[in-house]
Amino acid sequence: MTLNDRYLNPQVGRIVRTLGFDKTWVGGEGAHLIASSGQHYLDLFGGYGVFAIGRWHPQAVAAVEAVMEARTGNLPQLGVTLLSGVLAEQLLARAPGSVGAMVPANSGTEAVEAAIKVSRAATGRPRILYAEHAFHGLTLGSLSLNGNAEFRDGFGPLLPGCDAVPFGDQDALRRELERGDVAAFVVEPIQGKGVNLPPAGYLQAAQGLCKDAGALLVCDEVQTGLGRTGRFLALEHWGLQPDLICLSKALSGGLVPIGAVLVSRAAFDTVFDGMERAVRHGSTFGGNDLAAAAALATLRVLEEEGLIERAERLGRLLLELTRPLVDRYEVVTDVRGQGLMWAIEMGPPGGRARRSVWKAVERAQPGLFSQLITVPLFHEHRIFCQVAGHRMNVIKALPALVVEESEIRRFAAALEDVVARAEHVPSALARFGLQTGRRMLAGGAQR
Predict the structure, then answer these.
(1) Of 45, 135, 185, 432, which is the active-site residue?
(2) Which residues pair with 383 in a beta bridge?
(3) Which of 262, 284, 304 is the last residue of a domain?
(4) Is residue 249 flagged as an active site residue?
(5) Which of 116, 125, 212, 397 would suit a FRET pair with 427, their CA atoms being 20 to 30 Å apart?
(6) What range does the domain containing 279 cover?
(7) How many domains does the chain have?
(8) Which residue has the higher pLDDT, 447 or 110?
């Protein structure tokens, strides 16, 4: 924490200390983080979904070690290497038939940047559409498709020709596409910020509208892909055949930065249409042997351990255990999810006095109520989860797909315990304020 405050981001340090999340993590195993005390914490944050196959999975570790032991001829640049080609082959074999080539990348935001470039070059059109409340990354191009002011403010002017449409609004999308200048519509099948599921028929309609307008459909599966929702790709729930698919996060088992864009053969061949244009897009570390080997191991683990089917089964169980909270507690307005991508949304309680306290708190700090849930889960139940986005009372869970059923049940029971206490808003806020103040004082004394 001292080094962070001095050389990295002291504001993040303040948040971590205020919430009391400033543990010294000495290890990780499967679905858990291990503190210096030796206690295991159920990790429902998962590095923003990176650790889908669990932390330090032996097969992924062994694959990286094997590449290092082999001392492969890694990254010969204009040369061609084996492992990235095998990874492309394996990913495309699991993807819809609408894609036929891969562009390597190093992260989700880099994959989205590549999708923007490919879409514009393939169509000869300038505009990119995205959905409100979307999160596609934080580099400049991806940020231009980010539907959240807290990330965009102060970094303008952003990429021109990027316009938002409401998520789930077919008519708004149709109106923009009818202008005839749209290269692509970039959309998360399930929005990560808030875990917002699409209305019935929306994604299929969006696909049809894009096709009719000559625009490309880009599915951002950076968080939803690799088994997270109970399918290899979330788009399978709706039978989509997109022109581009962005992948990252869980693809390398959390070991090596990685990203990829799966691209239709027609779009790919239009962009890379001759030797003069062979290197018009690329990335220094894209397609490196360490990342490719870890990714290939991740694909094997997903299949050999049945983790995609497991995500579907445990996701159904989690919803069955937590959806009744909507009827039991006034402060719970919704519980939603798909596979092991889950969220609970909180709202104001009944009663004039409690509702007035809620409103006063929300005016002072929007989204604070959600910390009445996450903080006790962490300190009293050793369960680590966080809000699904800035200034929102939505709490999100992205457990490793290897999580045990008993841990899902433990989480559901712990959640009800803290929700029941949080419903008594004035006393819950008083407890939270007292505990937070003590932690801040203790942190100041340590510094």
Answers:
(1) 135
(2) 42
(3) 304
(4) yes
(5) 397
(6) 58-304
(7) 2
(8) 110
How do residues 43-77 score in pLDDT, each as one tens digit?
999 999 999 999 999 999 999 999 999 999 999 98
222 and 250 inside one domain: yes
Same-domain pairing of 123 and 205: yes
Q: Of the candidates 96, 105, 322, which has an alpha carbon nearest to the alpha carbon of residue 222?
A: 105
User: What ranges in 305-404 are assigned the alpha helix state H?
Assistant: 307-322, 325-328, 352-364, 371-381
pLDDT tens-digit map of 352-368 = 878 888 888 788 788 88
Specify the pLDDT at position 400: 98
pLDDT tier for residue 423 given thresholds of 50, 70 and 90: confident
pLDDT digits 0-9 by tens, 204-230: 999 999 999 999 999 999 999 999 999
Q: Tell me, yes or no, whether 27 and 115 share the same domain.
A: no
Report the alpha-carbon distance of residue 290 to residue 280 in Å, rounded.
24
- Which of 220, 268, 369, 411 is the catalytic position? 220
Instruction: Name the token pair of 240.
Output: 């989509």
Asked whether 189 and 153 are in contact (CB, 8 A), the reply is no
Question: Where a domain ends, among 254, 276, 304?
Answer: 304
Assess whether 126 and 170 both reside in one domain.
yes
**Are 152 and 271 contained in the same domain?**
yes
Shared domain for 136 and 161, answered yes or no, is yes
Residue 435 has pLDDT above 80, yes or no: no
Closest CA to 253 of 110, 365, 113, 402: 402
Please check whether residue 235 is in contact with residue 96, taking contact to mean a CB–CB distance below 8 angstroms: yes
In order, the DSSP letters of 401-420 are: TT--HHHHHHHHHHHHHHHH
Residues 313, 287 within the same domain? no
- The answer to whether residues 403 and 31 touch, using CB atoms and an 8 Å cutoff, is yes
Q: Identify the residue whose tokens are 């939603």.
A: 336
- CATH code (residue 119): 3.40.640.10
Q: Is 188 helix (H, G, I), strand (E, B) or coil?
A: coil
Q: Is the pLDDT confidence value at 440 over 60?
A: no
6 and 121 both lie in a single domain: no
- Give the CATH number, domain containing residue 349: 3.90.1150.10
Record the pTM: 0.94
pLDDT tens for 74-128 read: 999 888 899 999 999 999 999 999 999 999 999 999 999 999 999 999 999 999 9
Catalytic residue among 185, 232, 243, 249: 249
